[in-house]
Amino acid sequence: MSAVAAAAAEDERLLPRSPLRRLIGRPELGSVLGALAVFLVFAIVADNFLRAGSLGTVLYAASTIGIMAVPVALLMIGGEFDLSAGVMVTSSALISSMVSYQFTANVWVGVVVSLAATLALGLFNGLMLTRTGLPSFIITLGTFLMLTGLNLGFTKLISGTVATKSIADMDGFPEARALFASQLDMGGFAVQVTVLWWIGLVALATWILLRTTAGNWIFAVGGGRDAARAVGVPVERTKIGLYLGVAFGAWISGQHLLFNYNVVQSGEGVGNELIYIAAAVIGGCLLTGGYGSAIGAAVGALIFGMTSKGIVFAQWDPNWFKFFLGAMLLLATLLNLWIRKRAEAAG
């Protein structure tokens, strides 16, 4: 018997894993199966679901959720939550719009100021978490309430209404719209630029999780903060970085919101944070942290997109939308739990 075979016989961890075992061990497997089921249902019951225009609409709806679901998933893998993510998107759009309009500046000035301010909000959440030791639920709930009030209060104070003024005629608007809210024609198939942002974020997040030391840190702090600190993982820096990632996603989403509609309603975004978290959970992220993937969160967002638009294409009562989402959340969570237990049992 060779030395390698002898070592493998002594330690089963050195035995090669079959492709089936590796597949079962993937956190996004349950969400992929769920997405296939949802796709088949609407492909059967909705005659125009498979049309190119319909699929483009589905992808657009999924991308607007997925841009935020991906960094939220990384944060959840790191063991934390951000309940301010939804209103932070609106805050980012409001800052960009009001800075540009009030100072009659090129819209890119507002975009840059918005980026700095939104990252500062993420930094605030991260510093509050690491400096106080309070649960992220409490800290980000407080940020959520403060931002909700600030969004409404400042908008009414400055513009006199709950909506911002249009900036469509300002310098730089066409270029900013092209970056954040344009539509691309790919061989007769219309694709919103948010889909490209979404794919790019998924690729970046997956590379970070699976190919970098920072990815190991994220899984480590989510699996156990004290154990991670004991082996030299920079816990505080990792968690702050994850909150900055959520803020960056909120900035992208906020700029799309602004440049797609020209104006921003200050009360928007409330409740969207739960959709981002739900997409991550459907994608295989555990509420306890330490497990999940960016691809799974993207698939979870795709399920949301297919359901929201598929109900319309099937001409069902749209009031059933939230019911179906809740049912899918429970079913996907149970399926993910079952798959994970099978993977652990398979070794």
3D architecture notes:
This protein has 15 helices and two strands. With 347 residues, it is mostly helical. 73% of the residues lie in helices and 2% in strands. A two-stranded antiparallel sheet has the order 1-2. β1 (183-186) and β2 form a beta hairpin. The longest helix is centred in the last third of the chain and has 27 residues, at 235-261.
Largest sheet: 2 strands, antiparallel
Record field, number of beta strands:
2
The percent range for strand residues is: under 5%
What's the order of the H and E elements?
HHHHHHHHEEHHHHHHH
Residue share in helix? over 70%
Structural category is: mainly alpha
Number of helices: 15
Which runs of at least 5 residues are low in confidence (pLDDT < 50)? 1-15
Question: Could you tell me the radius of gyration in angstroms?
Answer: 22 Å
Spatial gap, N to C terminus: 24 Å
Q: What overall geometry do the principal axes of the alpha carbons give?
A: globular
Biggest sheet, spatial arrangement of strands? 1-2
What's the rounded overall pLDDT mean? 88
